[in-house]
Amino acid sequence: MKTVIYYHGNTWHKPGDFIQICGSGFSDIDNIRLSRLDDKGEYGFILDSQYNRLSTSWEKENASLPKEGDNIYSPEILQKTENSFKFRLPFDIGEGVYSLIAGDSSVYINVPRIEEVLGDEGGIATQGGWLRIIGSNLAPYGNSKAALMCGENYIPLEVSKVYDNYSVEVLIPKDIAVGSYKITVSNTFGGATAWSMPFDVTIGIAPRALWPQEVFNVVDYGAVGTHRTLCDDAFDKAFEAVKNNGGGILYIPKGSYYLTKTFEIPPKTVIRGDGYTKTLIFWTSIQWPLDTLPEAMFTAETEFDFNNITIGGTRIGGIFKAGTPEKPAKDVYIRNTRIFTNAVAGQKVAGDMEYEKRCRMEVRGSGHDTKCNIFVINGDNVQITDCECRVSAAPFYFGKKSHVQIKNNTFRANVRHWTPMGYCRSAIIEDNTFDCMTLGISGEGIYFSRNKIQHVIDNNRESFTTDMGRGEYNDRVKVIDDTTFELLFDPPFADSARVGYGMFIITGKGFGQFRRILSNKGRIIKIEEPFEIQLDENSIISLAEIRDRFFFVADSVYDGGHFQLFGTQTNTVLDSCSSAQAGGFFGWAKNIYNTYMPNWYVSFVNNRLSDGLYLHMLGDLNHDNTSGQSFVRTMGGDIEDIDFGILMQGNSLDEFCYMRADSLGNKVGCLRDVIIQGNSVDSAYTGLVISGKARCVLTADNKFENCGTNMDVSPDADVLMM
Question: Of 2, 92, 559, 661, which has the highest C-beta tally within 10 A?
C-alpha cells in the first residue's frame, strides 16, 4: 500500500523528542530509516509533505532528490495505525535536519517551511525595502539564510532581523529588477537539499509613489484650527479639490479643528497632520440624536493614507470604513494616529441615566455588530501601525483583508464588546496591546506575536478566540470525479456561499486533509485540486471556514479569559506564550454552529501558565468546568478523529495550572494521536487529566511537584506512558 505523509511537525525537534507522523498507508510499515543530514552545501530543496495541497509541476521539476546522512538509525515505531505513528529521536543523533524514510515516503524533519510572505507594501516588496517571511523552523537558534530565485540563479539576501523561529526579515537590494521571483530560506542545518520549498514573491514599486503629490492645505480653504471655529465647509472644499486632482496630499497643520459632519476620502489621498500631539480634528456630542450615529466619520472606496493626527469626539460613530466584500479596497495606511472617542459621553449623557442607557444600547447594537468600530476595512495591503486608540466599543469588525500589518498599536475599549478583526489572509499582528476587549480573528497565514491581551471584563470567559464561520454540512458525499462531489441532500446555504471554504475529510479514508472549495451550486461541490488520498463513500466530510497556519509567539494574557482555538484550526503553533490570572490556552474541536470543526496538527510548546485560580462568568458550578484552575487543554467533541496530531511539549505550569487532553462523548478516538512530553506542573489539584476514549496518547518525561494527584487517566483511554 502506498504511504503518504501529510504532516511531520511545525516546530523544532531535538534529540530525545518524540515525533508524530500523520498521513496514510502506515499499517504495513515495520521499520523506518532515520539519519541526520550534514550541514554542507549551498542551495536545494526536496518536495515537502503537504496535508492541504499537491506539489506544483514547477516544484516537481526543480526539486532535489532526498538525501540521507552517514549514520542510519532505525528507531522503534510506537502507536502505529493506518494514519499515524510515533518514534523517538535518538539521544545521540545530534541536532539538525533529519531524513526520514517510511515506506514510499521520504521527508525531512526540522526543514524550514515558508507559509506566507509580506513586503513593506503588503503583497509587494519594494527595491531597497524588506520582506517578512512567516513559517516554521526558519531560525531555531537565531540563524537564517535567504535567497531569491530567478530562473536557475540564486540571489543571496541579507537577513536583517530574526524575530523568532517563525518569522525573519530580509532586505531587498536597491538595484534588483522589479518582477516575479521565488524566495527560499535555510535554518543553516541540513546542507544543500534542506532549504525551504520556494515561495512566490513580487518585487515592485510602492503604490504611494505613484499617487499625485500636490499639497492641499485646509487652511487655504478657510479652516481655522482654534478649537471653536466650525470647519466643515473648508474640509469639504479641500476634499473636493483633492478629488478633482485625482488624489494628492490633504494637509492639516497644527491646531484643533471642529467638525460636525462625515467625509469621503477620494482615492490616492494622503491626509497628513503635523503630529498627533499637534493636529486634532474632533466632533462634539450634539450632532446626532439617538439612533442616528453615522456608520463612519471617513469613508473611502480605496487607496488612502492617514497619518500624524489625533481624532477625538463624543457620541460619534465609527471612524474609517473602506471597501466592501464585493468591491474591496487596496493600499490603506493608518499610522501615527491617535483616536480618542467615547460615544457614551457628553453633556446630554451626564446625569441622565436613561439617555446613557439608550446610548450604550445604540453603541453595542445587536449581536457582534456595533456603530463604533473604528476600522471597518475590506481590502488588500492594509497597514495600521503606531496608533493609540481608546474607543467606545470594538476597534475592528468583520472584513476580508489580505496582506495585513497591524503593528505597534494600543487599543482600549471604553464599552466592552467582542472585537473581531475578521478574516485575514497573510497577516502580521505584532507588538500591540489589546485592553478591555475580547479579541477574535480568523483566516490563514497569520503571525500573531508579542501582543498583550489584558483586563478583559464582562465577557471574560474568553480573551482571544478564533471563532466565526459555519459550513452546515457534515456527512458523506458521492464522488463524481477527482475534484467534484455531490452532497447527499440539498444544503441550507446559497450557491457560491461556500467558495473559499475548506472541504475537510473528518473521518474515514483520506481523513486529515482539506482542499479549498472552488465552487458550490446546488448539491455540487468543486474543489481546487484533488486530494492526495481520495475519500470514499464512507468518509465523512465537513464544509468549514479555513483557519490554517497560525503562529502565536510570545503573546501574553493577563486578567482575562481563555486564549482559545475555537472551531477549525489546522497547522497552528502556540510557542512561548504566557497566561496569568487568565484561563490558559485551549484548543477544542467539535460540532459548532452545525459544522464539524477539526483541530489538526496543533502544537502547544514552551508556554508558561501561572496565577491559575481563575474565575469567569460564574453560573451553576455543577456545569462550570473551566473556572478554578487555568490549563493547557486540547479537546475533541463527539466526532471521531476531529482532534488529531496534537503536541503539548515543554510547557511550564504552576500556581494551580494544569493540563488536559479530553475525548468527549461515547465515540472512540474523538481525541487521538497526542504527544505530551517534557512539561512541568507544580501545585495543581491534578497535574494531567486524560479523559474519555482517547486513542494513541503518549506521555513522557513530564514532571509533577506538589500536586494532589499527578495524573488522572480514564480507564477507557489508550495511553502509552514512557
Answer: 661
Q: Which residues pair with 630 in a beta bridge?
A: 657
- CA 704 to CA 114: how far, in whole Å? 37
- Write the secondary structure of 11-38 as one string of H (helix), E (strand) and C (coil): CCCCCCCEEEEEEECCCCCCCCEEEECC
Looking at per-residue confidence, does 419 or 214 come out higher?
Answer: 214
Decide if pLDDT at 140 tops 90. Answer: yes
Give the tens place of pLDDT for each residue, 653-702. 999 999 999 999 889 999 999 999 999 999 999 999 999 999 999 999 99
Question: 113-208 in CATH: which number?
Answer: 2.70.50.70
The yes-or-no verdict on residue 366 having pLDDT over 60 is no
Q: Dig out the grid coordinates for 290 from the structure.
A: 439617538
Q: If you average pLDDT over residues 332-337, what whole number do you get?
A: 97
**Band of residue 468 on the pLDDT scale cut at 50, 70, 90:** low
Point out which residues pair with 313 in neighbouring strands.
283, 341
567 phi/psi in degrees, rounded to 5: 100, -165
Architecture of domain 437-469+545-622+630-722: 3 Solenoid (2.160)
Q: Does residue 241 sit in helix, strand or coil? A: helix
**Measured CA distances, 608 to 116, 432, 581, 631, 705 (Å):** 27, 20, 12, 10, 16
Q: Any bridge partners for residue 405, and if so which?
A: 383, 428
In sequence order, the β-bridge partners of residue 582 are none
- β-pairing, 608-610 vs 652-654, is parallel
Q: In DSSP terms, which residues pair with 167 in a beta bridge? A: 134, 164
CA-based diameter of the chain, in Å?
83
Predicted confidence band of residue 620 (pLDDT cuts 50, 70, 90): low
Instruction: Sketch the domain layout of the chain as residue ranges.
Output: 113-208, 437-469+545-622+630-722, 474-544
C-alpha separations of 718 from 78, 84, 398, 671, 713 in Å: 12, 14, 42, 10, 9
Where residue 248 falls (left for φ over 0; alpha for ψ -120 to 50; beta otherwise) is left
In degrees and rounded to multiples of 5, residue 57 shows phi and psi of: -65, -35
Per-residue pLDDT, averaged over 17-37, amounts to: 96
Please choose, from the candidates 454, 465, 467, 415, the residue with its C-alpha nearest in 3D space to the C-alpha of residue 595: 467
Those residues whose C-beta lies under 8 Å from the C-beta of residue 511, and which sit 6 or more positions away, are: 83, 505, 539, 641, 644
* Predicted model pTM: 0.96
Per-residue confidence (pLDDT) for residue 626, from 0 to 100: 60
* Residue that has been written with the C-alpha cell 495541497 in this structure: 53
Report the half-sphere exposure of 442 (CA within 13 A, side-chain side): 21
Residue type, 453: I
Predicted confidence (pLDDT) per residue in 188-211, tens digit: 999 999 999 999 999 999 999 999
* End-to-end CA gap in the chain: 31
Q: Which residues contact 397 (CB under 8 A, 6 or more apart)?
A: 368, 369, 370, 373, 375, 376, 420, 422
Of 149, 144, 146, the closest CA to residue 157 belongs to: 146
Q: Tally Cβ neighbours within 10 Å of residue 629.
A: 20
Mean pLDDT of 65-74: 97
